[in-house]
Structure formats: structure tokens, C-alpha cells
Specification:
By secondary structure, this protein is an alpha+beta fold. 19% of the residues lie in helices and 38% in strands. The strands form three sheets. It has an eight-stranded antiparallel β-barrel. The longest helix is centred in the first third of the chain and has 27 residues.
Length: 305
Amino acid sequence: MHLLTFSPLVRLAALAALVSACSDDAPLATGGAATAKALDAADSGLAGGDMADASLADTTLADTPLATQDAADIAQTATADAQAVDAAAEVSATVDAEAGPWPKALQGDWLDCAGRLRLNSDGSFAWQPYESTCSLSGTWSRSGGAVNFAGYSAASGCKAPTWLGQVKGYAVSADTLDFVLAQLSPGEGSFSRAPMQERWLLDSGTGSAVMDVCRDATGRFFAGRVRSPKCDFLACNARVTDRKIVGSELHFYTECTGSCPCVGLLDFATIQPTSMSGKYASGTCAGAASGQVQAMAAVFPTLTP
């Protein structure tokens, strides 16, 4: 559930530690362990109040406002998220009181950056990705404050969305649906009925990627993803975990898990309606990278009704 994502400063500490741990001298065979230790060290440092020691000295973002982000900006974000939680909780309480396993407030189409979840009034559901034939169908029901999905299976060569088998609860409002997942996955399990969807083509000069970003009707970020077809920029596949306006700049934060975790920062200082330019810094078990990045707006894919 994205409302529980880590603050930008937590991710900043993780990136700083990760960049340090993932040096060119670290062998790939032990890179995963180094990454895990780096992330653990970042978390421990934050818990112990050592955030002031975190540094981006090894990256090109060290001299940007990201390294000295005003605490008021974080407080403002926390307040907005808390208000969103309260609003969703009010609607969720009404849904919980509604009789039947298929509350009307949950029925209909819900969209994120990957596809469309359709919850039908007869208890059936359908998941349709934007750019894949790997659709799913099955049954859904609300029970004991949770939403249960059953009777579905992925076709050969396809994978079901990771959130589908992890829903333990939910928060719903008129425009948004946030699933509480068994495993915290920032940027996954959150949907909007009418999202603002953006697609950006990223080019670092040495690699490229496609970044999709989704916000709800109020402009609140709730989902995003980055895919690099040649695995030569940021990561082969990563989640966008946050989008923040910091002063006059626009920042995006990325993460991925698995055998080779990754973190990344995109810091755009020049922003136009159809293009952006700025800096990036990233780290994986294979090493660290930083430099300049360009972004060009592209058409977001659509689905038939």
C-alpha cells in the first residue's frame, strides 16, 4: 500500500549506503549481500538518528536540494497522506457496514500504471494489462474487512500481479482503492477510477528506459514503474515509489527487490510540458551510476472498454 512507503530521506540514506557498498571493486557474486547490508545500515543509521551523516558525496546529486530537503516538505507530505487515509477510512467504514460480499463502493473499474482491475457486481473480476495479452479472470468477495481473489490462474508464460495473492485489507474512497498487502510493496496494490497517467521516455546517453507514473484525481502519486528493455538504465524492472516536487525540481524515486535490489533517484531541474532534463543516481548489486538524463513525454497506452 503506497501510503506506507518510506520517506524520501529514508530512501536517500539507502541510496547513499548502496552507492558506497556497490563499488566497482565489489564482486558480483557477493553483490546481493553487500546490497542487503547497505540497506540495513541505512535503516539502522536512521533509527539511531545518524541521518546527518548520510551523504551523496559519491553521486552527482550531492549538490542538489535533495540532499538538504526541508523537513517542512516532509511534514506537508505526511499531513496530506494522513488526510487521504482519514477520507478513505470514512468510506471504508461505510463499505464494511454494507451487507453482502460485493459492496457497490468496490465495484467497477480501477486503474493503475500496469492495467485495469474490474470488479463486477456478480462476484467475478478481470485483470487486463495495458501492453500484454496476459489477462486474468476469477472471483472476488469482501469478507471480514479483506478482499479475497480466487479461481484465477495465469496462462503459460504469464505471471499474475504480485499484489493479487497478498491482499489482507483495503481502504477505499470515491476515487481510490488501496489494498493492504501481506508484503509491503511501495507502488503496488493502489488504484484510481480516473487516474492522471504519464509516460516518459528516459535517455541517459548510455541507456534508456520507459517510466510510467500514475496520480489520482487530486494529484496524489499512487503508482509507477520503470522498464529498461536492454537493462542499461536504472534497472530492468523497477517500481516508482514516490514523486515529489522539491522547490522548483521534480524528483522520482525508484526501487526493486529480488536477488539484486536497486534504488534510484531522478532529479529534474528543467521541466517542460513534453520534456524534462536533470540528473540521476542509481545503485544495484552490480555497481553505482550517475549522470545526466533526458525525458520525453509519450502517449500512455489505453484499453478497450
